[in-house]
Structures are given as structure tokens and as C-alpha cells.
Amino acid sequence: MLSIVPLGCYGSDLENKKCISMLVTPSTVIDTGSIMSSLDTNQLLGIKHIIITHSHFDHIKNLPIFADFMLSLGNHSFTVYTTENIMAQIMGNIFNDLIWPDFTKLPTKKNPTIKFRPINFDKPFSIEGIEFLPIEVNHVVESLGFIIKHNNEAIAYSGDTGICQNFVDHVNRDPSIKTICWETSFPDRLEKLATASKHLTPSQLAGELAKINHPCSIHTFHLKPNLEDEIIADIKKIESPMKITPMKQKRPITVS
Q1: For range 5-17, the mean pLDDT
Q2: How far is Cα 36 from Cα 69, in angstroms, rounded to an integer?
Q3: pLDDT band at residue 196, thresholds of 50, 70 and 90?
Q4: Backbone angles phi, psi at 126, to 5 degrees
Q5: Cβ distance 147 to 95 under 8 Å?
Q6: b/e for 44-55, b at 16 or more Cβ within 10 A?
Q7: Residue 210 carries which DSSP code?
Q8: CA dihedral (224, 21, 220, 169) positive or negative
Q9: Cβ atoms within 10 A of the Cβ of 238, count?
Q10: 227 DSSP assignment
């Protein structure tokens, strides 16, 4: 069964609320906001595939520490899947031998800890039998959403995005999608801030849901943890035939 386990599902860290990391299989995770605080040593060593949606800190927060962990525990390696542009942002600003060592050269260039695999918008790729279709979404930096498929099951994952017709179009073209993970970062009263930062409020999410042409269950994520209660109160006001459920950490999201 296709599922996503939110290790962290918030748009920041606060107390026990953690930044974004979505476990797709025991070896594959989307984003690294909270993997180091959510998995034990053996589970971390099992991570071999990391998909990065974009370069913002809350989504790559644990990537440098994870690279150090993998190297220091005995020459382990993993692959990072993202676009060439996002890869360049991460390498130029993090793994630049100033902020953090370049783990694409450690322990050696021929045997690096981090191996990058470039991916492209609308070009599917597979990891251990699961297909990922990268979708360009509407954020302040280049950012990816995904259609995730296994056998006849499919989940749409928005990544960080504001209002995005491209994401809606991809969902509408694929009636096998019955589950959508859709970011909702700010309460309605902060709509100007959400729009400027290219995130969604519950009212804006409602407008997006009205465009979807087949029934789906909706799981909201990336809520700002200090505003969670207010965002959820606004979500409850949405009038939609679709069931809307805020994500909970460690509670699997499965195909409806």
C-alpha cells in the first residue's frame, strides 16, 4: 500500500512540532527538515534516497548533519534527487566548504557521501518501484510538487506553493489520484503575507479545491506551528465535499 509518514509536517520548529520530512519508504524521504530527531540510528542508516522539493532552510535543515552522520559511521552514501537549479543552490550556499564541507567530495570524489541525481519537471523517475512525477509549483524559489504512484495508487503532494494552476491541472488529468497532501501555511487573516511568500491560507485552499474535478481526501501540512490552532479553525470553516484533515506527525497518509 502506498503511504506517506510525516516525520515532521510543520512550516517551522516549535516544541515537538517539526519541520518537513515525509517518509515514503524506509529508504526514501522527501525533504530533511526533521529526520535526525525522528529516526533512530538504524533507521537513518537505511535512508538511501532523499528527494528535495526546494532549497529553503526548513526543508534541508538536517541534510548537512545527515551527511556528516553517514560519513562518520563508516563510509555510507545516499542519493539526493532534485533539479539542477536547486542542486546548485544547495551546493553554492551550504556544501561550499565554508558553511559546511562538500560531501560530494568526501571521503573521496570517486566515493562521495552525497550523490546527486538531477531530475526534471514532468519527467517521471522511479525509486524501488515507486514512481515520482515532479511538478513545478508556485513558490518564491524553484520548487517541486509530486504525483507519487505505486501500482494503481496515487498521492499528489503539493510541496510549498501558493495558488498553482499547474498543480491543479496535474491532479485533474489523473483520476487515479484520490489523496492530496496540500500545504496550508497561514490563517486567513494573514492572506497578504501568504500571498507575498507564495503559501496558502485555508480560504485560498478552498479556492483550489473548487477547481478539482474528482473527489479526493485532503491532508493539510506546513502549518506554522505557532498559528496551528487558528489555521485549523479556519480550515473547519471550509465548505467542500472533500474531507480535509490536518496532518499529524507519525500518522501515515494512505490512499483513500
Answers
A1: 97
A2: 9
A3: very high
A4: -125, 145
A5: no
A6: beebbbbbbbbb
A7: T
A8: positive
A9: 17
A10: G
pTM confidence score = 0.97
State the CB neighbour count (10 A cutoff) for residue 185. 27
The one-character DSSP state at 78 is: E
Model pLDDT, residue 28: 98
| Interatomic CA distance for residues 123 and 5, integer angstroms | 24
CA separation for the pair 108, 2 (Å, rounded): 36
User: For residue 107, is the peptide bond before it cis, meaning its omega torsion is within 30 degrees of 0?
Assistant: yes
- Secondary structure of 87-136 in the HEC alphabet? HHHHHHHCCCCCCCCCCCCCECCCCECEEEEECCCCCCEEECCEEEEEEE
Q: Which domains are seen in the chain, by residue range?
A: 3-121+130-254 (3.60.15.10)
- In sequence order, the β-bridge partners of residue 10 are 19, 223
Selection from 135, 198, 142 nearest residue 167 by Cα: 135
- For residue 220, give the H/E element and its range: strand 217-221
The radius of gyration of the chain's CA atoms, rounded to the nearest angstrom, is 18
- Convert the pLDDT of each residue in 123-170 to its tens digit: 999 999 999 999 999 999 999 999 999 998 999 999 999 999 999 999
Q: How far apart are CA 235 and CA 242, in angstroms?
A: 12
Q: Which SS3 state, helix, strand or coil, does residue 1 take?
A: coil
